[in-house]
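Step 1: inspect the first sequence and its tokens.
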Amino acid sequence: MLDGRNRVTGIFTIEDLRRRARSRLPRVLFDYIDGGADGEVTLRENCAVFDRVRFLPRNAAAMGTCDLRTTVLGTPVELPFLLAPIGSSRMFFRRGECVAAAQAGAAGTAYILSTLSGCRLEEVKAASSGPVWYQLYLIGGR
């Protein structure tokens, strides 16, 4: 659900997001977003790694400031993660690449544009205040 300020409500976990997407998207689109390539080996391995991460909240503990800044391939970012490319995202969100790039820039991190983008490179770069990279697929052989 969206509240009066267009914020998503009632989402607390990745599984909540998956359920919401499954209920709103045609099955072929949900499967495209939710699935992995080939036998989904990398998808399973990535999920297994995240399943092993445990957060240990320390309530009422004095903490200094938390500085997440780092560099990725020589590019400074405020957050230690990037928004990865999703090909053909125009199938499920009109001009999604421009929106995602804008949000990545606002958060202080980089956006990576897919070769199979629904928006022009120049539009995506103009939408972001942060770094924008391009994922190049060499389609059709060498």
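Step 2: inspect the second sequence and its tokens, then contrast the two.
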Amino acid sequence: MLDLDQQLEWLMQGTDDVISPSQLRDKLEKSQQTGVPLRVKLGVDPTAPDIHLGHTVVLEKLRQFQELGHDVIFLVGDMTGRIGDPTLRTSTRKQLSADDVREFSRTYVEQAKKILDPDRLTLHYNSEWLEPMRLADMIRLMAQITVARILERDDFHNRLTEHIPIYLHELLYPLMQAYDSVALRADVELGGTDQRFNIMTARQIQEAFGLLPEVGMFLPILEGTDGIRRMGKSLGNYVGINEPPQDMFGKIMSIPDLLITRWAVLLLGEDAETWESRIATENPRDVKADLGHRITARFWGQEMADEAQDQFNRTFREHQIPDDMPVIDLPEDPWLIAAIELVAGLPDMPSKQQARRMLQQGAVIVDGSKIAIFDTVTVRHDSWVRVGRRRYYRFRMK
């Protein structure tokens, strides 16, 4: 069992900031003395169906609290999710339907269990206490903070400056999230560095309701596969933890070399100096392959990670097409079709505009030959098409 100083050092490792380390130490010490575990909270708004690697930075820290015997609360913001967190937004979020939130909540919870121990996890939905709130309860909550304080946050301030509308329901978001910490009597709350305003507001509201303020632990935000912007589904630079192992490994192999060490530190909890030394003395491609294999194995197991790496090597190092690829039914053999219609009709192609862009970039190959946007393509039984670097499809007659 780790002593108090060792626990504190382990929990703070990899964090960007903690408000405050002395309060965290006091809470850990009290927990040790009384035998009452800390209540550690993570709130997630289900605004999309997938959890990606960026989310796992915080989830791994939660798992550390579990290993120390503390109670971890995975809070699904099914009510706050209908508003949408205004953090870093330059416009009002589209409100999700209750059905969307319910479905996204289900997939979030199942995916989170890939990292967290489900037997040591408490699940809550904030509709449990937010939905029954009366107007009098809401007025009491709103009386604990000023409009000036809410408008201090950069996203609201910038929108005011640029005359972009801010709606009243958006101003309620940080209050609703703060009240979650009151309802749960949270001792610690985790979040990305972008959640500083929301968590600091929660500390203030807890004190107003006569509770000790929670400790805020802020984790770094993971850059996406482009190496520049934060990982996000809307930016197309994400790696979902439910993606097939071949796709996961392939995406990781596409990240710029400068991200290798950072991903190893944030996703694997590794020492930065070790990875920097490896990059300096080994082929960075091999180091990246090790990173991709270890991350893929984390979610899919050793055997499937091995298969993903082998397929990647066959496809991209030996220029072979994969043995296993999605099959598309062929309406006739041979099939003559315009290139743009062929690509736009492929699974996972979001739009005709994207199909046109892929053709213009020379990123579409049929049976080994690159096709152009105005080509007419002949597709036969057992023909294959590659879109970009990783997506393959094979055509078959029924």
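Step 3: confirm your contrast with the notes below.
Residues 168-184 form the longest helix (17 residues). DSSP finds 18 helices and 13 strands in the chain.
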